[in-house]
Amino acid sequence: MKGKELFQLSTVVRPSAVVFLVLLYILLPVLTLVRTLLPGRLLTVRSYAPSPLVNWLVTVVFIAVDLVLAYGVWEGKKWSWVCALLWSVLGIVSSTLGLFLRPLIGDLVSLVVNVVILCLLMQPTVQRYLHRA
Fold this sequence. Notes:
- The chain is mostly helical.
- The chain has a domain at 52-133.
- Helix content is 74%, strand content 0%.
- The mean pLDDT is 82.
């Protein structure tokens, strides 16, 4: 019987809110890359980096954090809820400040996505899946 157990597929049932949350965390790096590479800079978020190299390094770090959070949420890691909550609140504060300083579409999109992520993190099914309830 042990041999069969080794080849049994995982039967983890993820709530749809968790799947949507992971999709958002996978979509965010794509949007970040598009925003960074877009010549017209339509979706730009202001950069306070002193040089283009620092701007690219910050972009790579943001992409890495989003992908690590996607992994953590998908696997139901305990740490992912707290980290995702902090990252979302940081994104909301940053986007809100950006909108007050000089409104850009990228800040508005970031604000909306982070508010949606925050709402998803507060769902009881997501909290149970991430061992918060």
